[in-house]
Design a protein that fits this description.
Elements lengths: L1 H14 L11 H10 L7 E3 L2 E3 L6 E6 L2 E6 L2 E7 L1 H5 L14 E5 L5 E8 L2 E8 L2 E7 L4 H13 L2 E2 L1 H8 L1 H4 L17 H10 L1
Antiparallel strand pairs: 1-2, 2-10, 3-4, 4-5, 5-9, 6-7, 7-8, 8-9
Length: 200
């Protein structure tokens, strides 16, 4: 029994497990800690992308490249900007002084977080990693929504092959032809059919 306890202690000591505490009272700290991690988790796969939905957040529906999520009375609207990702478009955002919160995010991946007060609610617009989450929340929920949105946006991974196929103009071009079963087809005549049968 002592050997087992010693081995367990050595295993835990040598694995180097670390716990990162996030101060959820500070939006700046939430963004800095979560977005600095290289998160490879995913539990939701869409058309050309995948991402991780944190515990407590539920997937509701998808409409094209828009996902609707829900957690504790708040709806999250996730938009995947596959076109900007494919063409590697730069983010152009200037921080605003008249907002409740406004910050441009720079680094390997770019984005911004803007929060505006609208009467008794706050409108959150969080763009990062070629995806955007929008939500309307009460003041007490701002930090929680920013934390969940940070996890979601930081884990988005794109499938280049699928996106290239989606953006290929020929892939989306439908070649429709109007056909009327009651209209006589001018290109074929019964004469050809009759001649063929007579010759044989």
């Amino acid at each position: 029994m002592k050997k087992l306890a010693t081995l367990l202690f050595i295993f835990l000591f040598t694995t180097g497990c670390t716990v990162v505490r996030i101060d959820t009272g500070s939006i700046d700290n939430i963004i800095n800690v979560v977005l600095s991690k290289d998160n490879t988790l995913y539990n939701r796969i869409g058309k050309g992308y995948k991402y991780y939905i944190p515990r407590g957040v539920s997937y509701i529906d998808t409409n094209s490249l828009n996902d609707k999520l829900y957690s504790n009375g708040v709806y999250y609207y996730l938009y995947i900007d596959a076109v900007s990702y494919f063409y590697k478009k730069e983010v152009s955002y200037e921080e605003k002084e008249d907002c409740y919160y406004s910050k441009k995010i720079e680094g390997d991946k770019e984005g911004y977080l803007e929060i505006n007060q609208e009467e008794d609610h706050y409108s959150i617009e969080f763009f990062y990693n070629y995806a955007k989450i929008e939500a309307k929340v009460k003041k007490k929920d701002i930090e929680t929504v920013v934390l969940n949105a940070s996890y979601i946006l930081s884990t988005i991974k794109f499938n280049d092959n699928v996106i290239e196929l989606m953006l290929n103009e020929e892939y989306f071009t439908n070649k429709e032809e109007k056909y009327d079963i009651f209209k006589k087809d001018e290109t074929t005549t019964n004469d050809n059919f009759v001649q063929y049968n007579v010759e044989n």
